[in-house]
Amino acid sequence: MTTTSKKPGKKSDKPSRIIIEPVRARAIRGPHRDNKKSWYWRTEYHHDGSSDTLWTGWGTRQQVREKITKLIASKGLDVLVAETRVRRGEVTHIGTVEHLMRAWYAWWLDNPEAPATTLKTYKYAARHVVKALGDVRIARLDLTTLEAFKRNHLRAWVKRKHKEIEGLELKLSAAQERLEAVHGTDRAQGAARTVEKLSARLEALERRLKKPVKSTLALDLKVLNAAWNWARERIDGFPNRKLAIKAVLPSKQEIHDAINDHRPTVADFWEVVSKLDGWAKLAVLLLAATGARKTEIGTVRWASFNAEKKTLLLLDGKTGTREAALPLETVEKLLKARPEGARGRILGEVTVSTVQSGLAQHIRRACVEAGVTYFSVHAIRRMVTDLMYAKGSDPSAAAAQLGHSVQTALEHYRRVHPDDKARAVALAGLGAPPEEATVVSLDERRAKSG
Questions:
Q1: Helix (H) / strand (E) containing 52
Q2: CATH fold of 266-426, please?
Q3: DSSP state of 43
């Protein structure tokens, strides 16, 4: 008896359609010469009596079903249709920034001359833009929105870098403990190399944090601008205006402020203080008690401390010498810590340069141990400024304590919280009718006072 086997490519071998309403896929060519189960599929979205091709490509029936499911889940049908129509030159409307970036990138994907490195750069930059501005309507993409995008971009970048630093701090701390545990053994040399490598990485990351982040933000804005201009040229009804990209690029001061902007809550601050010891703890306590700069605390001497007047004379201030008031709790701590007949610096033998460069590392390690967000040394001064003004301190007195003008305090240090605005409205009695005034004659007032 003669038997015949089915030849590949016959209709009986063709896989059945895939239906994930309202999307359908059918095999239109195949099978593939290297994989008999792989066919060339066309995926279509059927709606309003018409259809749009969403995707074409090779794959097995199971692979194509998974591909369609992921496409719909990740992008949505409206975005998939927009990308398809861009390829066919049929885009008539783009509603949001996400639609804009996806349509623009789909157009680039169909450009045979586009270098792979360029596409990769555009892809990641467009992803940043979509994540931050994806839901923004095209008509509302203005300077105010871009300014908010810049601020959020800078904060997110700084937060990521601080998180990386915290992770390295933990690894370095564990490596140092291991080095102490294996000291004097054959494994000590390897442990020492690990500590050196982690220390070098940590220093490099801290240096990177101080460098401008303008380049990454500029790239995202450049890509957004390119997509915007592309749509202006090709899509009817798209806003015919330029984006104010140059006005949004951050200055060095804005970058510096973003790095140092986070200020701790009072609770977080004292959690960190509980993890400090020695000169670092005393320095942080003095910073929080006076609002002084770290250079001022690093050079202050015991002779400048007046327990009776509860003051500390700061000699090396940025704005000259000033006398800072001390709270009673700090005075008591200093009296307890002061050695008999001490005349040297309050922080002891530690050098001023060590205070300048090393205090931040002590604070960072304490933040990691306490499980709170890292804050810089200067953030303590900002915290003190906020506390003084939030409690209703006289602006001139607060500025004199901090060693700067009232204008500088309000412009660069003071951060207004929603509670502050609510308190100001309540104190001013806004929105409430005036109470009836009681008129008292001069004779009655004199009689009462007499």
A1: strand 50-59
A2: hpI Integrase; Chain A (1.10.443)
A3: E
Question: % helix / strand / coil in the chain, to the nearest 5?
Answer: 60, 10, 30
33-37 long-range Cβ contacts below 8 angstroms, 24+ apart: 35/60, 36/8, 37/61
Please list the pLDDT of the chain residue by residue as tens digits (450 residues).
Answer: 333 334 444 555 888 888 877 788 888 888 888 888 888 888 887 766 667 777 788 889 888 888 888 877 766 666 666 555 555 555 556 888 988 888 888 888 777 777 888 888 898 889 889 988 988 999 889 888 888 888 888 777 777 777 777 777 778 777 877 888 888 788 888 888 888 888 888 777 766 665 545 567 888 899 999 999 998 888 878 888 899 888 887 777 776 666 666 778 889 999 999 999 999 999 999 998 888 888 788 888 898 898 898 888 887 556 677 888 888 888 898 998 888 877 788 888 888 778 877 888 888 888 888 888 778 888 888 888 888 877 777 777 877 887 766 666 555 555 545 555 455 445 445 444 555 444 445 455 556 555
Q: What are the DSSP calls for 214-268, one per residue?
A: HHHHHHHHHHHHHHHHHHHHHSTTS------HHHHSPPHHHHHHHHH-----HHH
Rounded to 5 degrees, φ, ψ at 436 are: -65, 130
Q: Three-state DSSP class for 176?
A: helix
Give the position of tokens 């994989």.
35
Q: Where are the domains of the chain?
A: 12-75, 140-260, 266-426
The DSSP code for 7 is: P
C-alpha span between 44 and 25 (Å, rounded)? 6
Task: Please say whether the beta carbons of 304 and 344 come within 8 A.
Answer: no
| CA-angle at 362, arms to 360 and 368, nearest 5° | 100
> Could you tell me which residues come within 8 angstroms of residue 401 by beta carbon, excluding any fewer than 6 positions away?
290, 291, 324, 325, 388
Query: Contact at 8 Å (CB) between 26 and 11?
Result: no
Q: Which two tokens stand for residue 68?
A: 């369609």
* Alpha carbon of residue 422 to chain centroid: 27
Stated as kind and residue range, the H or E segment containing 27 is: strand 23-29
In this structure, how many other beta carbons lie within 10 angstroms of the beta carbon of residue 154?
21
The distance from CA 92 to its chain's CA centroid, rounded to whole angstroms, is: 36
Identify the three-state secondary structure at position 6: coil
Q: What letters, b where the CB count within 10 A reaches 16 and e where it falls short, cover 287-304?
A: bbbbbbbbebbbbbeeeb
Please, which residues have CB within 8 angstroms of residue 70's CB and are 6 or more apart in sequence?
none
